[in-house]
Amino acid sequence: MGDSNIEKLQEIVDRSRRLVFFGGAGVSTESGIPDFRSKDGLYNQKYKFPPEYMLSHSCFVDRTEDFYEFYRDKILAYEAKPNAAHLFLAELEKTGRLSAVVTQNIDGLHQAAGSKRVFELHGSVHRNYCTRCGKFFDLAAVKAQTGVPHCPCGGVIKPDVVLYGEGLDDDTVTGAIKAIAEADAMIIAGTSLTVYPAAGLIRYFRGRDLVVINLGDAGDVPGALFIHQKVGETLGQIKIK
Ligand code: OAD
Fold first, then answer.
1. Confidence class of residue 1 from pLDDT cuts 50, 70 and 90?
2. Is 126 an annotated catalytic residue?
C-alpha cells in the first residue's frame, strides 16, 4: 500500500470526532471466518441447495433440519477471535470519537473486542429464541444440542439472525441511520455493498471524510479514499492518539 494512504487515513481518524464504521464479512476474514462472495467465500461452494436458500426464512420453516445442518456447519463452525480491526474500533470508541459500528456480520466479534455501540443489521448468532414461547437462549444453548435445537417447552429455537425473506429490525436500522447521518467520517470496510437494504444505509452519510477499505471490488462509492488492502492490517497501523 502507498504509505500515503495510511497517512491520509491517520489524518482522517485524528481529526474525526464522530466516526462511524460500516462493515461486512471481510472484517472477519482475518479472524478465520470466510466471507460470502470472494473466491473462497460461502457462496462459491456447492451445497444441496443454493446458499441463499439455505439461509432463507422458507428453508428455516420448510426444511428446518437442512437449515440447521447448514447453519451449524457453515455459520457456527468457527471459534473465531477478534482481529486488529475489531480491536482498533473498540479502542477508538473508548476515546469517545467513534460513535458507532454498523455491521452486517452476525458473529459478535465487535462486542467480543469490547465495542459497546454496535448496530447488527443482520442480527447475531449469540441471540436465539423459542418460536413458541419466546424464551431467549445464548449460543452455548444452541451448541449444546445437535440438529434442530428445541426449547424445554417443545418449540423450535430460531437464531435472531435476519434470513433471506425477513425484514431488518426497525430500531437497529433507525439507530444505524442516525449514527451514519450524524457522522463526520465514515469507514466502509470488507463489504461488497451488494445486499440491500443494508448497503443502502451508507447514502445517509453527510460528513466530510469517506474511506473504503476492501481487498476486492466494493462498488462505486464516489468521493471515497479507496484503500485496497486488508482491513485488519490497515487499521492495525493506525495510531489512536
Ligand atoms: P461479501 O462476501 O459480499 O463481501 C465481502 C467483501 O470483503 C468482498 O468485497 C471482499 O473482497 C472483501 N474482503 C474480504 N476479506 C477482506 C479483508 N481482510 N480486508 C478487506 N476486505 C476484505 O460480504 P458482505 O458484503 O458482508 O447477509 O455481504 C452482505 C450480506 O450478504 C451478509 O451480511 C449476508 C450475505 O448474504 C445475510 O446473511 C442476510
1. very low
2. no
